[in-house]
Amino acid sequence: MAGLRALGVLSRITVRHRYTLFSDSTRRGFSVASSLMARTHVNYEVKGDVAVVRINDPTSKVNTLSVHMQKEMAEVLGEVWSNDAVKSAVLISSKPGCFIAGADINMIQACKSAEEVTYISQEGQKMFEKIEKSPKPIVAAINGSCLGGGLEFAIACQYRVATKSKKTVLGTPEVLLGLLPAAGGTQRLPKMVGLPSAFDMTLTGRNIRADKAKKMGLVHQLVDTLGPGLKGPEERTMEYLEEVAIECARGIVNKKIPLTKEKGMMQKVQDYVMSFPFVRNQIYNTVQKKVMKQTKGLYPAPLNIIDCVKSGVEQGSDAGYLAESQNFGKLAMTTESKALIGLYHGQVACKKNRFGVPEKEVKTLAILGAGLMGAGIAQVTVDKGIHTIMKDTTLEGLNRGHQQVYKGLNDKTKKKSITSFERDTTLSNLTGQLDYSGFQNADMVIEAVFEDIAIKHKVIKEVEAVIPPHCIFASNTSALPIKDIAAASKRPEKVIGMHYFSPVDKMQLLEIITTDKTSKDTTASAVAVGLKQGKIIIVVGDGPGFYTTRCLAPMLAEAVRVLQEGVDPKKLDSLTTGFGFPVGAATLADEVGIDVAAHVAEDLGKAFGPRLGGGNPELLKTMVEKGFKGRKTGKGCYVYQPGLKSKEVNMELNDILESFKLTPNPAVSSDSDVQYRLVSRFVNEAVMCLQEGILANPVEGDIGAVFGLGFPPCLGGPFRFVDTFGADKLVEKMRRFEDVYGNQFTPCPLLLDHAKDPSKKFHK
Amino acid sequence: LKKTLSLITTCLVLLTAKSKKTLAKPGVKNVVLVEGVRTPFLQSGTTYADLMPHDLARAALQGLLHRTGFPKEAVDYIVYGTVIQEVKTSNVAREAALGAGFSDRTPAHTVTMACISSNQAMTTAVGLIAAGQCDAVVAGGVEFMSDVPIRHSRKMRKTMLSLNKAKTLGARLSLLGSIRLAHLSPELPAVAEFSTAETMGHSADRLAAAFGVSRQEQDEFALRSHTLAKKAQDEGLLSDIVGFKVPGKDIVSKDNGIRPSTMEQMAKLKPAFVKPHGTVTAANSSYLTDGASAVLIMSEEKALAMGYKPKAYLRDFVYVSQDPKDQLLLGPTYATPKVLERSGLTLADIDVFEFHEAFAGQILANLKAMESDWFAQNCMGRKAKVGAPPLDKFNMWGGSLSLGHPFAATGCRLVTTVAHRLKKEGGQYGLVAACAAGGQGHAMVIEAYPQ
Questions:
Q1: Where is the 3-hydroxyacyl-CoA dehydrogenase C-terminal domain (chain A) (predicted)?
Q2: Which residues of chain B neighbour A224 with C-beta distances below 8 Å?
Q3: Which of B198, B203, B206, B362 should be substituted to probe chain A, the one whose Cβ sees the most A Cβ atoms within 10 Å?
Q4: Cα–Cα nearest to B175, from B157, B199, B189
Q5: Does residue A320 share a domain with residue A393?
Q6: For residue A13, what pLDDT is reported?
Q7: Residue A674 maps to which CATH number?
Q8: Other CB atoms closer than 10 Å to residue B187's CB: what's the count?
Q9: CB-closest option in B206, B276, B372 to A224
Q10: CATH for A387
Q11: Strands, DSSP E only, in A372-529?
Q12: Exposed, middle or buried, A5 (CB in 10 Å: 0-12/13-18/19+)?
């Protein structure tokens, strides 16, 4: 008993003792503690003489540079700078997959004027300038995405350490949102990595992996990722990164790690060459020309970026920073930027499964048909840990498909994004076969056989005889209504459409089509598979041509008419690309296949009548008869020669066009009119799909059009285009075309609604 | 007083009492180690430099015969391990046996399993005996790093092979003309994983970091290994060595890689694989070594019938494998609990531990992993940790770090050392464990032969 009491006293004493011992620091500590309590996004801890500053946005999966984050960061850095015990600092994120993913887009969207946005930029510039001039070295410890403002933050620090994790990427993707790196990025990058690399980074917005970043001089040191130890791999890797970064920070303070790297011979030569204004001007001009060629001047951001870099290099940093912040303000107010940001948000929304978690995860996926589409689907499936069965009817077909999958993976090996060993183990997930063996284990079957309803019916019956009851049957048709295909099924609730776009490994969109009978779980499962395959997904209602094909058909029909009216394919292409389509209409027809286009035109023509007509469908048929099926046969609108990138107009086409010649009506045949004839039919059909409930919402309509059909991204999709261009103006144009061509240009009721009431917008 | 005394004795008995009195199983043949020898392990490029792998193997085999006086005709079978193969002697077991004067009627085959190749050779022998196929098997392993096969580039090989088939002078000349400078760059063998392309040292450094093993801990462990090896060498405990007269050179009778240094000296070295912040250095890694080892394994009854006194019983063994990237060198952690379970022993039953020391960081990471419940539960699917071996029973006569590590010869050295240490220290059970490239591992329980 006595002992117990003694212990109690002892503990009380020690407690009291602790208070007295630290009374000094508690007073000081209190203010720290109170602000610590208040701080939610940025915190720091002092380890010896190094302050470890941790970033963690508790409300999100990623860290963004929000106003709140910046405020706390300024406070914390202020304390770090004023604390004499601290000699250096390490900046690290508490989120394993993300350093800082960029500035908060909502913060910029909330601004009403260019001045407000310019102010945000200037605040960022000031903060990073302070960091750049920090009297105590700051080491950025990077694991996961370090993008946009995050990268600008990192390059303002004195030293950068990054993990070799595949998640670690550095880049300035602002240009993809129609913006520019506005917190000193356009000024610091050229100094750090040289003009050519800086232009490459800021103008393409591409992600740079850690090893490449080290070679470019963007980061100083790399840290390996670790496996499991006494903790989980991610957690321990973060700790390790922090430990190494702390050592670096001490090394810099002790002058053991020099901050200026000795320049190599190549670097010296490059610097010398760059010292001539003539050389630099040459670079600006080349880059400018390249940008103009690629964007047709439709995107202001890249040109502004060149301008900012140029101002900084030629007129000094004051001018550079000023140009950066002002251009940023201007850009944020452009319709292009708003369209691109809209697409970004839409893309995020279309990467979620709004149908919930499927009851059964798809572990074995069978694909019927090893053609371009079938093998393409296999390509994006096999590397996601899904056992993939690829079935074809002929050994030649199977061999071709197998080679396509192999080539896709081997190209990745050549680019070093995977090792040859990963390629081989991935391929071991693929089974190629001519029969239905193993289908009893399939969780989903996707058919990519010829577009003929009789063949589809035959296939669905054969498949249903061997697959288990839970297995989903998906059709990769581009035009046949799913309910017609499902008519042959014993279990229509398990039938769904999964419309992929060619080439499957490059095109991001997947259009999923549900019928009235398709069960919710079937849809959830199809979306889950699509998401695993890395697709952006829109889910649309059933009907001829669904959404995407239906929008494309009238535009292609119009394109045929334009050709008949004597516009040559090259001119047609330049008109469409001039409007912002990444691929011209004639080239697109060749890529899709003239036979496919003819087929679709005929099917949809039957379903929708003359409204979907335009040019003479016999023209396409004649082309097919002559063997001009597009790129796959070497001839279409153009002549394709293997190994040659440039293509010539197919001269033999002229004879056909001559026999189908129409006389253009000069009232609707100016370049601009031709462009709007093509686009307005596309847009009108899209709006009609929304009106008819094929589309669930305008967002999916915009995403589908941009990512599946190449609708001009700078316009943000057909619905945003109507919002910004004005429905009334569009209707006015269409009425003019209607007078000449009839009901093909009759605006649909929903579009007319919007034309009548300007306050009606598809996007809020 | 009497009471206390008896209490103390019970305590003592309890302390030394084993979970099992013996690991002999009814109906299972007892397999014994009769003798084990090895050539001195030399750093590659030293006295053995001009030999060939089978020469070293010959020396070990001859040494075994010489030491045991075993009649050559009584050897039923020979199994030998090797890792880096000399293409001329791809079945090095056969070439060495013939060269060592074994009967040409004794079949021989070669096995390979990276650093546990001779363990594989020994367990193959155990299997042959347990299955009643053989009574006396010689097992061993050889590694010769002074000369490794360096190949022409694939392009050059292809050209040369086509040259064989070219019929006309013109065809030959055009083939010769196609040779470019790039054809001439040779392909060097690397101690790297084929599957991950990562060198073993790099993986070891990451492993050490994953378990938070510091540079100082690693240097200390390496120093311990060298110090203990030196002591064992000086005290004449490394009695498995047989001298080897190298043609044209001296008789070699000692390992030449044992160099106890100081912590200060070791601290000066720069990291060898992960630069600049890595912790694995030349001083805390095992080095490239030439050497060979051989053991005679027999059924107990045959050994006794022939008048041999076995050194130890070879009991349960396991092979394990795991992720070749992040857990490349954790074989002992996975193998130890498994083999103990198999034999019905606990870690406390083991008197002698001999673990293969690939890197100090690797050993320390394994010790930490074995001591971690988190690792056992999250990575191995076990309920609890197995526990780390106490260091006063662990590699007491040095290890691969100091004695050297001829890849395929190390396994036999470990087993023979356990047998010798059990005898010297009076223990009953010993445990051998080792990691190997490919993310594999091995462990074996050895029981002392009653005196």
A1: 545-640, 677-756
A2: 202, 205-206, 209, 274
A3: B206
A4: B157
A5: no
A6: 34
A7: 1.10.1040.50
A8: 13
A9: B206
A10: 3.40.50.720
A11: 387-391, 430-433, 444-447, 472-475, 495-500, 509-514
A12: exposed
Residue in A with minimal Cα distance to B365:
A229
Same domain, A310 and A233: yes
User: Same domain, yes or no, for A108 and A250?
Assistant: yes
B-contacting residues in A 365-404 (Cβ below 8 Å): none
Q: Which of A97, A94, A103, A101 is nearest to A55 (CA)?
A: A94
Amino acid identity for residue B155 in this structure:
K
Taking 50 as the threshold, does the pLDDT of residue B348 lie above it? yes
Distance CA B300, CA A486 (A): 74
Domain check: are A561 and A520 in the same one? no
Same-domain pairing of A645 and A579? yes
Please state the ipTM of this predicted complex: 0.92
- Closest residue in A to B194 (Cα) is A421
Q: Is B206 on the interface with A (CB under 8 A)?
A: yes
Among this protein's residues, is B435 annotated catalytic? yes
Q: Tell me what the pLDDT averaged over chain A comes to.
A: 91
**Please, are residues B151 and B157 in contact by the beta-carbon 8 Å criterion?**
yes
Residue B195 has pLDDT above 60, yes or no: yes
The active-site residue, picked from B202, B226, B356, B405, is B405
Quickly state the pLDDT bin for A37 (edges 50, 70, 90): low
Check CB contact of B362 with chain A, cutoff 8 Å. Answer: no
Domain assignment of residue A393, given as a range: 364-533
Q: Look at residues A310, A333, A356 and tell me which one is the last residue of a structural domain.
A: A333
Report which of A522, A466, A461 is spatially closest to residue A497, judged by C-alpha positions: A522
B274 in reach of chain A (CB within 8 A):
yes
Asked if A412 and A471 sit in the same domain, the reply is: yes
Spatial CA neighbour of B433 closest among B444, B446, B424, B422? B444
| Catalytic-labelled residue, pool B134, B412, B435, B442 | B435
- Close Cβ partners of A143 (under 8 Å, ≥ 6 residues apart): A92, A93, A96, A97, A99, A162, A163, A165, A167, A168, A237, A238, A241
> Is the CB of A247 inside 8 Å of chain B's CB atoms?
yes
One domain for residues A404 and A299: no
- Using CB atoms, which residue from A221, A228, A419 is nearest to B379? A228
B contact residues 166-205, partner A, Cβ 8 Å cutoff: 194-197, 202, 205
The predicted structure's pLDDT at residue B9: 56
The interface residues of chain A toward chain B in range 217-246, judged by CB-CB distance below 8 A, are 221, 223-233, 236, 240, 244
CA-nearest of B38, B75, B83 to B57 is B38
Contact B276 A421 (CB under 8 A): no
pLDDT beyond 50 at A647: yes
Q: Do B379 and A247 touch (CB under 8 A)?
A: no
* Coil, helix or strand at residue B430: strand
- Among the candidates A468, A499, A533, a domain finishes at A533
Residue A630 placed within a domain: yes
Tell me: do A518 and A561 sit in the same domain.
no
In a domain, A29, yes or no: no
The β-bridge partners of B32 are: B298, B313
Report the CATH number at residue A262. Answer: 3.90.226.10
Q: Is residue A173 part of a domain?
A: yes
The verdict on whether omega for the bond into residue A503 sits within 30 degrees of 0, i.e. cis, is yes
Mutate to test the interface with B, among A226, A242, A246 (most CBs of B within 10 A): A226
Q: In angstroms, rounded to a whole number, what is the distance separating the alpha carbons of residues B407 and B438?
A: 14
Task: Name the nearest CA neighbour of B34 among B304, B310, B231.
Answer: B310
Residue of B nearest to A245 (CA): B277
DSSP string, A701-760: HHHHHHHHH---GGGTSHHHHHHHH-HHHHHHHHHHHHHHH-GGGPPPHHHHHHHH-TT-
Which residue from A223, A229, A247 is facing B210, i.e. has the nearest CB?
A229
Count of domains for chain A: 3
pLDDT band for A12, please (50, 70, 90 cuts): very low
Residue A340 lies in a domain: no
